[in-house]
Amino acid sequence: QMVREGRIPEPDVLFFMTFEEIGILLATRSPAIAAKASRRFRLHPRLNKDKYPYVVLGIPKPIVRELKYCEGETELKGNPMSQGTARGYARVIQDFEEAHLIKKGDILITAATDTGWTPYFPLLAGVVTEIGGPLSHGAVVAREYGLPCIVGVDGATLLLRTGDYVFLDGNSGILRKVVKSEEDDEDEDELRDVLKASPRLQNLQ
């Protein structure tokens, strides 16, 4: 409604305003407040990539990171949140708008998840997030679906790419990029047979 009334340019700008600013905007149609919120909205994608230390003394300063994609095999460590292991192709997602690209058997690698991701969990073989804890959305829902899950894998979305073949160990918190073997191909064929035999899972195709 605020967009239709010309108070803000698009709906998401509302989330970059304080309660006080929203009240003033509703009462006065202040263009200055709308412009300030729009600027925050434009800056957010860039600033959201910065990582800050957990404990800060003085003025917060971003941690300087030069994480690059890892060629060849590599191993990352996180905190195990749901037991089990899985092998499969990584689906690295930086933005929820890419969630529709998820395919059955993918291992999701993303910064964090929320309730919007829940419908995709039945398709996944495992879940990896860069942040989170025992009660974070990804960890809780992964346990509900019996999916191996690790959280706190710093830089996972930068060090890995969609299509990398990975091994996820939800018991130890290890995420490893590996070379695909013939045994893995046989496991995938078996998984496809199981999916074909299950009417419930066929509905997810």
Automatic annotation (TrEMBL):
<keyword id="KW-0670">Pyruvate</keyword>
<dbReference type="Pfam" id="PF00391">
    <property type="entry name" value="PEP-utilizers"/>
</dbReference>
<dbReference type="InterPro" id="IPR008279">
    <property type="entry name" value="PEP-util_enz_mobile_dom"/>
</dbReference>
<protein>
    <submittedName>
        <fullName>Phosphoenolpyruvate synthase like</fullName>
    </submittedName>
</protein>
<dbReference type="InterPro" id="IPR051549">
    <property type="entry name" value="PEP_Utilizing_Enz"/>
</dbReference>
<dbReference type="InterPro" id="IPR036637">
    <property type="entry name" value="Phosphohistidine_dom_sf"/>
</dbReference>
<dbReference type="GO" id="GO:0016772">
    <property type="term" value="F:transferase activity, transferring phosphorus-containing groups"/>
</dbReference>
<feature type="domain" description="PEP-utilising enzyme mobile">
    <location>
        <begin position="102"/>
        <end position="173"/>
    </location>
</feature>
